[in-house]
UniProtKB/TrEMBL annotation:
It holds the Pfam family SET. It comes from Microseira wollei NIES-4236. CDD domains: SET. InterPro entries: SET_dom, SET_dom_sf. This is SET domain-containing protein. Residues 4-112 form the SET domain.
Amino acid sequence: MIHPHTEILYVNELIGYGVFATQFIPKGTIIWVLDELDQKLEEAHVLSLEPLRRKQLVKYCYRDNKGRYVLCWDIARYMNHSFNPNCISTYYEFELAIRDIYPGEQLTEDYGYFNLDEPFYCLPESGSTRTKVMPDDILHFYPEWDRKASEAMKYLNKFPQPLKYLIAPKVLDTVNAVAAGKRPIDSIRNYYYDRAIQLRAVS
């Protein structure tokens, strides 16, 4: 579920739509949480669909570390990519604001931790030499992403969090311990879907 202080707006003809803040969202805010309304679809089911539906589905899905396609039920699926994002994902299946986000500002994330099926080509951005997102980006950029997520987690319990109740109970104690500085954050690298291992398992 996406944060309640957001809305979907048209960006331009090239980008299409995006998610924007309607109120001030401070650093450390939980922006999105995987909840029971989000669909998790097995690869075999997705591949069994006719091309039209499969193409649209894959466009708006990401893959978890088990290879399942996850389709967000709300406007979260319209969050756009940036190499300089203001939000970041965690291994605990929620996203955080990694800096203050102001009303009217677009919420963005790095698609590099989404286990994409194929490269995603992007517009050039100042401050980054990257021009495409690769399926194995997690393996290359996880130290930087872990550092940013860990820094944002310090603010998790500093103010009300309207989405915190949706964090999976099995990880809630761990999340609170990380926020309190009592343990290190679990690396987003653990969310990497290793296709080679999967292929060996079914062969």
